[in-house]
Amino acid sequence: MADFRSDTVTRPTPGMREAMASAVVGDDVFGDDPTVNALEQHVAALFGHEAALFAPSGTMANQIALQLVVPPGGELLADADAHVVTYEMGAAAALGGISTRTWASTGAKVNVDRVARMIRPAGFPSVPTAAIAVEQTHNLGGGGVIPLSVLHDLRAVADAHRLAVHCDGARIWHAHVADGVPLATYGALFDTLSVCLSKGLGAPVGSLVIGSRERIARARVIRKRLGGGMRQTGILAAAGRYALDHHVGRLAEDHARARRLAEGLAPLGVVDPDRIRTNLVPLDLAKSPLDAPALAGAAAKRGVHLAAMLPDTARLVTHLDVTDEDVDEAIAVLTVLLS
After folding, report:
1. Architecture of the domain delimited by 14-246
2. What is the pTM of this model?
3. Which long-range contacts (CB under 8 A, 24 or more apart) does 255-262 make?
4. Which alpha helices (DSSP H) does the chain contain, by range?
5. Which of 28, 165, 186, 291 could form a disulfide with 233 if both were Cys (CB 3.0 to 4.6 A apart)?
6. Could you state, in order of their start, the residue ranges of all structural domains in the chain?
7. Low-confidence ranges of the chain (pLDDT < 50)
């Protein structure tokens, strides 16, 4: 099967498995797993922050970060399609007591003036805004990259109102490769970040929360409260470190394959290749003969897996385990089904 459902379906490479097998481990709950500690220090340094915390999932990392910057009863601003709003099972409200208010989603095209007008100051009876969250790259926005200039403007607005800014940076590695923005430049714009090792980079599991030393000390408590305290986690951290050392630069290959995939499907009227910046290829099926679930089912029977995101939107994702031949096969199968 050519599996385009997500960049989370990858399997560890031989080199990654070797790194996992030889990892020196300890008990991470006690803070004495040297491989985890080294990974956390390395990732914090990459983004120019003081500290980081390894977590088992991106959702947990995001929710830890949100609890660090928004108190119970406080308000988070985000776009309506943000992962922290759409795909995390209401955790901000259920677990953090966080009130969320959203602006209409335009993917990576963030209107900073509009966000600024949404900010509510402290004072009865409104819920005070405490933080703003953005997603880099934007999942439901088709892997779009928020321009650096926009992020600078958003940071200025947040500073003027004394707000925190969180970055759901699950695929920030792709933005870094696509636009050439240094990771530390991104890091300087955010109070907290979450970054994923299993989306695109090929690690089997794991994300990190990044922030100040004081915040990460609190994050360790929240992680334990959420059930995220792990023991000999160095086996997983070794995979993440291997991914960072070997799989970041090659993301350009995934971007190129995604663009070629979009160009091959463009004659069907379901995707604009010029909008494909990274490794996500959304298909607009509003005028197509099949809706997204039907297309996903029919394609799977022909050996191509894709994801049905919405009734009229499907998605293909290129990644470490997708080859040029897989791209050719996907174009051929989808051309038959959508013609």
Report:
1. 3-Layer(aba) Sandwich (3.40)
2. 0.96
3. 255/174, 255/177, 255/178, 255/279, 255/318, 257/318, 257/322, 257/324, 257/327, 258/143, 258/316, 258/317, 258/318, 260/327, 261/316, 261/318, 261/327, 261/330, 261/331
4. 14-21, 34-46, 58-69, 83-86, 91-96, 112-118, 148-160, 172-179, 183-187, 213-225, 234-246, 251-265, 292-301, 324-338
5. 28
6. 14-246, 250-338
7. none
